[in-house]
Predict the structure of Histone deacetylase.
Amino acid sequence: MTEDTFFTDAKTQKKKPLYQPNSIYSPHVSYHYNPNVGEYHYGVKHPMKPFRLMLTDHLVIGYKLYEKMDVYIPKPASRDELLNFHSEDYVDFLQKITPDNLSKYSNLLKDFNIGDDCPVFEGVYDYSKLYTGASLDATSKLISGASDIAINWSGGLHHAKKSEPSGFCYVNDIVLSILDLLRYHPRVLYIDIDLHHGDGVQEAFNTTDRVMTVSFHKYNGLFFPGTGNVDEVGVGKGKHYAINVPLNDGIDDESYIRLFKSIMDPLITSFKPTVIVQQCGADSLGCDRLGCFNLNIKAHGECVKFIKSFGIPLLVLGGGGYTPRNVSRLWCYETSIMTDVTLDSKLPENIPFRNFFNPDCSLHPNLGDKLDNKNSRKYLENVRTKILEQLRFLNGAPSVQMSEIPPDFSKLSKEEEDEINELNNEERMIIDAKDNARIGELEA
């Protein structure tokens, strides 16, 4: 018999989910976005297109992934929140500069690194507050325990420095989020799989052992930002807590995934982070406008899936990515990984701007094999060996006092600090007990 006994009418078919659950277990996931963030514009010829965030949200909505998450529209970050990391003169400059008054502040443009990469566009300060506010809101949900995984695709702008923008990034939402996490977590692991080195985050935490930064990126000494060689390992108390994985052009799916897992598995086991921040820059995909790798969407997502498998509270952020249709495909797919469902490979029929994904309208176009892979097995094994050798210096997870906030970052009143210290003392007793437990011993 070739025909089905039962068939569905058009109304039932319309209500059919576009995803299939993968397992019974599903972490509590929250999705943080502000619909206004995609309306800003760096300039006609600028490669950064906030419009990619609107496309991402359309795909997430089209696949009905909102049914699997708590969805929040967060408030913008406040000026005081930005000052938890950024200098007051820089925040004041961002607040007052506009395209109309550029000539008035022409003497300051060079001081604050304003140029082609980081132009002044209409609403730049408000834009920065929106994506930063979403990251801080996601962070608060992790801290409170309301979420096991919190997602903000508009965040992940990892180049911004304390007193200037860099690499299309004006406010470093990642640093601000990690500073909040440090008030409640003894050890934070930051993982960056953007095409570019996460220099702003590494620089902020270069001297502390409470934050380990790990960045997989292209490096040849000239490619922006010019940092991130394997010998950059942190300084002082933070020595060996900065891990850099320099890669050459054209790395493919198999090589990247194998290297990523072989480094991250022993690293997480050794450092024992109590929370992870994952930056998922999409410019490491093949066919990116500024890219030079051969990664497909599933390979990029496999790295995120691997980190999720450790079951550690996870903040998931966006980052680079300059071919909007592929950026949105990737972040929608990685949202499905976080929510533990499998999506139809054919994009939903009813999404706006569906023509952007022509001709195949697929979630997984072929993005690999466009460039020669200049990462030999010998080169990658050499990088891996150097990094694993670096991990030997860690001697396990550092034992820290939760009151130790990196210098100049504490902005709380004495009463607030006392309340947090009391909470931290209780939490530290629990964490230390787990850290000291013998392998295989069940904690009550």
Observations:
- The longest strand covers residues 211-218.
- The two ends are 57 Å apart (CA to CA).
- The chain has two domains: 20-396, 413-443.
- DSSP finds 13 helices and ten strands in the chain.
